[in-house]
Design a protein that fits this description.
single chain; five-stranded parallel sheet; globular
């Protein structure tokens, strides 16, 4: 299957993408991984991307599209893939259509993870990270530490990242609504969109997504 995964920040796309890709036996292709791989390997696209990033500029769509195209052409993606974070706007969606058309294949589904905006804010703004080890993550509501502000694992101080504040989250949501959400209508016109609720336990959301994709 060839699937695009969309949803607002805080919808759990990364978590669901990993589970779904494993269940479907297809590679999980995320924009973040593409950038890290190309930059660390010093590819021409990676060098170009890094030059924009160092200058504090947005990386052009053409660079992101090029990275995605190269990754989709690798052998492990011959029978399908799950795209996470790409396309992020209509221009990228149109470019993806052209890439697939040239390869005589098409998308099977666009999985839209739906989460109420207030829940997104609650999920992200409630997150607390350990200063000693960023892999120790807690949540004031869903996974509270035994002692407020103290990591259960190592006793380190828990803090809220600057990009996890409610103000920042709402700004990120505004960007999502403006830039990325329009691709849902773009793909809905192609009868590709499958919308599911991303509320509840991770396993339940995965099962919901798998059932929706089978249909």
């Amino acid at each position: 299957m060839r699937i695009v995964l969309v949803g607002p920040p805080g919808a759990g796309k990364g978590t669901q993408a990993a589970f779904l890709a494993k269940n479907l036996d297809i590679p999980h292709i995320s924009t973040g991984d593409l950038f890290r791989a190309n930059i660390s390997q010093g590819t021409p696209l990676g060098v170009e991307a890094q030059s924009y990033m160092k200058a504090g500029q947005l990386v052009p769509d053409s660079v992101t599209i090029g990275m995605a195209k190269d990754r989709m052409e690798q052998a492990d993606a011959a029978n399908g893939f799950l795209l996470d974070g790409f396309p992020r706007n209509v221009a990228q969606a149109e470019a993806l259509d052209e890439i697939l058309k040239a390869d005589h294949v098409q998308l099977d589904a666009v999985l839209d993870l739906e989460v109420p905006e207030d829940e997104v804010v609650k999920r992200i703004a409630g997150r607390r990270i350990c200063r000693n080890d960023s892999s120790h993550v807690f949540h004031v509501t869903y996974h509270a530490p035994k002692a407020e502000g103290v990591c259960d694992t190592c006793g380190g101080e828990l803090y809220q990242r600057e990009d996890d504040t409610e103000e920042t989250v709402r700004k990120r949501l505004s960007v999502y609504h403006t830039e990325t959400e329009p691709i849902i209508d773009y793909y809905r016109a192609q009868n590709l969109v499958v919308t599911i609720s991303a509320l509840g336990k991770v396993d339940d959301v995965t099962a919901r997504a798998m059932d929706a994709l089978k249909k």
